[in-house]
Amino acid sequence: MPYINLKLVGKLSKEQKGKIAKEFSDTLLKVAGKPKESLYLVIDEVSGENWAQGEKFFG
After folding, report:
1. What's the rounded Cα separation, in Å, for the pair 8 and 48?
2. Where are the domains of the chain?
3. Which of 4, 7, 18, 25 has its CA 20 to 30 A from that of 37?
4. What is the 3-state secondary structure (H, E, C) of 1-59?
C-alpha cells in the first residue's frame, strides 16, 4: 500500500489534484508494479505564513 503525503504552499484546483493523483498512480504502476487503486495520496495545502526555509517565510 503506497502512501504519499504531498505538502505545498497555496491552493490547487480539483482538476490539478486529480492530475497529480493520476501522475503519481501511473508512475507507481510503471516503476514499482503497484496497482493504481492501492495508492493513498494526501495533499496538504499549507498557507504561506506557515511555511519557511531557514529564516525565510513564504507567502
Report:
1. 9
2. 3-48
3. 7
4. CCEEEEEEECCCCHHHHHHHHHHHHHHHHHHHCCCHHHCEEEEEEECHHHCEECCEECC
C-alpha to C-alpha distance for 7 and 43, rounded to whole angstroms: 6
Specify the CATH architecture of the domain 3-48.
2-Layer Sandwich (3.30)
Q: Would you state the pLDDT for residue 59? A: 64
As given in the structure block, the three cell numbers for residue 36 are 493504481
| Residue-by-residue pLDDT tens, the chain, 59 positions | 899 999 998 899 999 999 999 999 999 999 999 999 999 999 999 988 888 889 887 76
